[in-house]
Amino acid sequence: MDTPPQLYGVYGHPIAHSLSPHMHNAAFRVRGWRHWYIPIDCRPQELEEKLEAFRAIGGRGANLTRPLKETVLPLLTSGSSWVARAGAANTIVWTPEGWQGDNTDCQALLGQLSPALPGAQALVLGAGGAARASVAVLRESGYGVTVASRRPTAWPDVQWMAWEERLAPASWDVVVNATPVGQSGEAQSAAWPMPVEHGTVVDWVYSPRRTPFLREAEQHPVAVVDGLTLLVEQARYAWRLWFGEVAPADPMWDATARWQ
Asked: Is the pTM of this model over 0.70?
């Protein structure tokens, strides 16, 4: 039976760089669906109005990127347990009751991390939506978590350190970059904290795929999780909220080929 066309999108500012339209539209074509996925430039103060306009033209579901993953929370009528734990949502779907939210960033990262050994510690750089997802997953996996950010944070059971202290000697089992530092066109950092031997480095930045942080990590005996892998996986899990299934991986990866 032919599937009626549906409209999806990704909200953020800036948004022109997003790979999400390429990935989702490629996967729609493979499924033989006439759905369409569009980028929508949106500042936090515009989100409610633009979501209403989106619904008016038939929009059914969307992703949210920085800086909107926390802004959207008051506009949701319900959210998954990951939304509650992260305090952020990156995927929404329209239901008869209103917008329902999920956090597929959490699901993507959870699939890349090993459960913590007793006493294992993780450092998360940043305090935005990706950082919140990282903290939720690390805690779920059994890690003690410290956040380094430019502004103090207050999350239950999470230590905070000033950004300037992130390079102080410490035995981190996992280090996560959840800031834009290292992204093409963004600020760069000359030094990065590294985990202990056989620890794990995670970078949410996906352009370039081999970020300065990951290039430095490659000089150490550590595992590496890159941002492009996380981007594709969170996109695949978004389909579970929209369609009840995980998206096919191959067309999404094919759509990202020029960034690998």
From this structure: yes
